[in-house]
Automatic annotation (TrEMBL):
The gene is Faf1. InterPro entries: FAF1-like_UBX, FAF1_2-like_UAS, FAF1_UBA, Thioredoxin-like_sf, UAS, Ubiquitin-like_domsf, UBX_dom, UBX_domain-protein. SUPFAM superfamilies: Thioredoxin-like, Ubiquitin-like. PANTHER family: FAS-ASSOCIATED FACTOR 1 (PTHR23322:SF96), FAS-ASSOCIATED PROTEIN (PTHR23322). Transmembrane segments: none annotated. This is FAF1 factor. Pfam families: FAF1 (PF21021), UBA_4 (PF14555), UBX (PF00789). One of its GO terms (biological process) is ERAD pathway.
Amino acid sequence: ACTGIENIDEAITLLEQNNWDLVAAINGVIPQENGILQSEYGVETLHGPAYGPTSHSAAASSAPSSSSAFRHVVPSRQIVERQPRMLDFRVEYRDRNVDVVLEDSSTVGEIKHILENELQIPASKMLLKGWKTGDVDDSTVLKSLHLPKNNSLYVLTPDLPPPSSSHSGALQESLNQNFMLIVTHREVQREYNLNFSGSSTIQEVKRNVYDLTSIPVRHQLWEGWPSSATDDSMTLAVSGLTFPCHRLTVGRRSSPVQTREQSEEQCTDVHMVSDSDGDDFEDATEFGVDDGEMFGVASSALRKSPMMPENAENEGDALLQFTAEFSSRYGDCHPVYFIGSLEAAFQEAFYGKARDRKLLAIYLHHDESVLTNVFCSQMLCAESIVSYLSQNFITWAWDMTKEANRARFLTMCTRHFGSVVAQTIRTQKTDQFPLFLIIMGKRSSNEVLNVIQGNTTVDELMMRLMAAMEIFSAQQQEDIKDEDEREARENVKREQDEAYRISLEADRAKREAQEREMAEQFRLEQIRKEQEEEREAIRLSLEQSLPPEPKEESTESVSKLRIRTPSGEFFERRFLASSKLQVVFDFVASKGYPWEEYKLLGTFPRRDVTQLDPNKSLLEVKLYPQETLFLEAKE
């Protein structure tokens, strides 16, 4: 709004040249020559620069007699009369270079008129090229193009024949030549051999070097360019490079940040005064921003509430407020912050299965840093950054604005990362915030892969995140391999243990079955023995209860019975014909064939004697005088 500079690269370059001192950068751009400071009465004048830290002292030393003028000056009604801004143009036409100096209120047509006198070419035949904003017409006012002080242009005359074929052929040959640029990267001491055609521009070289070294064009500090290479739009053929090989050196431009106290001291020496016509300084609100956000920096005084409460007891509650406040300031498109303690974030990121592990990104916010608003709104909330973080990182945040919260984080940092990392963060100045820490979990400790400061770009931030991801991916593949091997060993051991357990179970079951079988056999043997003993006792009892066998010469009627056993043996006995059939049954039972288990059968006629009445006599059942019987087991 103050300088009319709309090119972001040019603005950042000016800020870096002034060590990010905003006031000094503005004073370096706004013309200050021959400003006249008038009193409110318009009578006395004070000659000297109206801007700059030395304006008062210079005025006092150069005009001691005008000290009364200071007594009559009313600051609120100061008027600055400035000369128009002067622009320098170097115009290239074939083998000639013409220097033109004009006020910024001049038009493009006036440049052509000057060139017409210098080059003896009609202005209507000229095509003036090299404008950074594209083609312009003759009526365009230079001030509307927002040009830098030094500019390079070139003239084309397609309607005019070339003066001589030799010069045109030499220029065309130079454009078709290939230049070998040997570029040395100062910080890493590495050389790159780059081939460019003569038609390539210096800007194209710098962009290619950015791809190789990751140093943005605006951060590149070069050595070795010829003095004639004054503009990045120049081709290599006309820049004065040594053919066919030229050596260059590139490094990263250092950007030391002045402390807040120094900036405040310088601010007290700078007077921002408005023009009498109100044309040179426009209210920032006309551009849709307030005073605190004129240059992308939001004043902490304008914020409604802090990002995080001071001395919060619960880290999860503090992170909830941080996320809500971040969304209210910068919108809903932002990284998904992990809600919980730092230890819980470690657990989530590092201690799962190797395939599920992620990097841990710790965002350290600081409301008083000049870089915070730009970093959050333009980089941290960029869709590409948000998407990449959500896929590959666990993102945890903390607010370092309050001293108590800062001390608390440093304590956590010392415990988890060691005193070296804590000291590194402790020494970071306010204007170096916000910080972005990339953490990778390892077996023995947690390693800080990268500390990204706030003065970066989206591309550089993405490249550093991707570089950290490459390191993590290599480590993750090793961890996955180790984990798979460990799981395979554990599976083999588990299978062996299971097989051993099953074998033990089978042996125990077999042993128990054998024991049960033996116990059953023993029980059956016992029962059998008991039954045999009982049977033997019955047999003996029956044998003892039998009446004595009558003799053959007995005078009583005797019946002689011959009995065949199932095994084919025979036994005989004499019974009195008057004896009951039960006596025969008892005799057979005393021989081991109880009538409950065996049948006693007669032959002629075949009959089952055991079915007869046991109380009848042998004579009555017709087992007299003799009979052959045989035993048969009952079914």
